[in-house]
Amino acid sequence: MNFLHRAFPIAGLMIAVAPLSGCNILIPDVAADSPARFVQETSPVFYQPPGVDPSRVRPIPDQPVPQTRELYKTQFHQTYGLPVANPVHTAMYGEQRDEDFTLPAIPVSRVQPQFLRQEVDYQTNERPGTVVIDTKARFLYFVEANGKAMRYGVGLGREGYAWQGRGVIQWKQKWPRWTPPVEMVSRQPEVRAFSAENGGMNPGLQNPLGARAMYIFRDGQDTLYRIHGTPDWQSIGKATSSGCVRMLNQDVIDLYDRLPAKAEIVVM
């Protein structure tokens, strides 16, 4: 019985192979090496809709490649899509809450870049902590160690109202009261309402001294020359002030925080 179970599968296989006796399944199909057959089997088949004569179909003309592209025309760089405004400057000169006042943001894109706050190489014999004002270039330098300085753009006094020399920043004040000196009142009677005898102008965003004032003395005497903030950011880099050094309000706050007591100052 076991012999029959083993014999039937073998007999079935022999019956299935019998019709294939005319071809040898172990011989490779060499016709696949025929170039003619290869072309016949691999030639592409194109879609030809009924009623369309392929010889009468006109090809679509090549479209010209544009030479320039208007990528991000207004708010971004042409190539990389990066914001035009420097994010560092945006942070430094953005809206700032200080004491009881909120300083508005400064439109830094409208200020010449060299007049924005930046650390620079600066070789000088002055000690770190000294303030140096270059009246020709309209720069104020706060001298740091290792040949560096923090540089700020400033607005300066008109010719005839400026002061030069070496002095000491005797004291400094946050949100100062403005009391124009007698000489200014005599030249500009419209400021008499803010004279010392009338109590001066209250601190605030429109106060000409801005958010900070630093008072310059020489030989113990007030020079009436000040470093101060200004709401008039357009005056930076120009000679418009009456004998004082104007700074952007955000910059004068930064300088105030860096300045040591009784700091030396050189105006040249």
Keywords:
268 residues; alpha+beta; nine-stranded mixed sheet; two-stranded antiparallel ribbon; 13 strands; hydrolase; glycosyltransferase; transferase; peptidoglycan synthesis
What's the β-strand tally?
13
Number of helices: 5
Q: Give, in spatial order, the strands making up the sheet with the most strands.
A: 3-6-5-4-13-8-9-10-12
Distance between the termini: 124 Å
Gross geometry: elongated
Rg calculated over all Cα atoms: 43 Å
> What proportion of the residues form beta strands (DSSP E)?
15-25%
Proportion of helical residues: 10-25%
Largest sheet: 9 strands, mixed
Order of helices and strands: HHHEEEEEEEEHEEEEHE
Question: What structural class do helix, strand and pairing data support?
Answer: alpha+beta
- The residue ranges in which pLDDT falls below 50 over 5 or more consecutive positions are 20-25, 71-82
| Global mean pLDDT | 80
